[in-house]
Amino acid sequence: xxxxxxxxxxxxxxxxxxxxxxxxxxxxxxxxxxxxxxxxxxxxxxxxxxxxxxxxxxxxxxxxxxxxxxxxxxxxxxxxxxxxxxxxxxxxxxxxxxxxxxxxxxxxxxxxxxxxxxxxxxxxxxxxxxxxxxxxxxxxxxxxxxxxxxxxxxxxxxxxxxxxxxxxxxxxxxxxxxxxxxxxxxxxxxxxxxxxxxxxxxxxxxxxxxxxxxxxxxxxxxxxxxxxxxxxxxxxxxxxxxxxxxxxxxxxxx
Length: 254
Ligand SMILES: [Fe+2]
Ligand SMILES: [Fe+2]
Description:
This protein has ten helices and two strands; from the N terminus they run H-E-E-H-H-H-H-H-H-H-H-H. It has helices at about 5-15, 35-50, 55-65, 70-100, 120-125, 130-165, 165-200, 205-220, 230-235, 240-245, and strands spanning about 25, 35.
């Protein structure tokens, strides 16, 4: 975290009457974190979540042009459209609001920690086979990054907010629990769905490519790679249902 950013953060927090130097202890995100560090982190989490809106909106459209069966195309269209709206909500509403409450101005795209896939590039082919390939590759990349967000980033943010003990942090903990975690779990389910419907019936080479691209996504958030056994455990033995993907069937989701 750059000293210049932290200095700026200290000023913004002090303006809101928040102690910028309160130590929040070690977390998975940094060996030591202060309120100023949490502020900077929330700005980049908000921007990174928001960056997920456009590529997932494009994926919904790509699914209709990838030569898939109607059922699979419809399922992916609905699930990715919903994900697109949810990522915008995480960025602008959940993390963006907490950032703003701490004195932040509107977060900017350049605060995103990942360069999102270009939505225009995703949609510029008319070849169904090529589109299927792009769909599988982008699903793996996003799913990899989201698996880390779910298992590591969100718990770390909750821990930091707990040590902070401020009402803004309390609100954010409730939002993460009630909104972000269930939605991110479903985004990881889309990664599983794409695997079972598009990838599993193909060759071992295609499956291996899905694993490697998933790991590329995990690496964007500096997480360790999944070996084949870990992938198999996370991916499960069957495709989730549409109701599970849309969050209409809470049973069996954890
Ligand atoms: Fe999200
Ligand atoms: Fe997500």
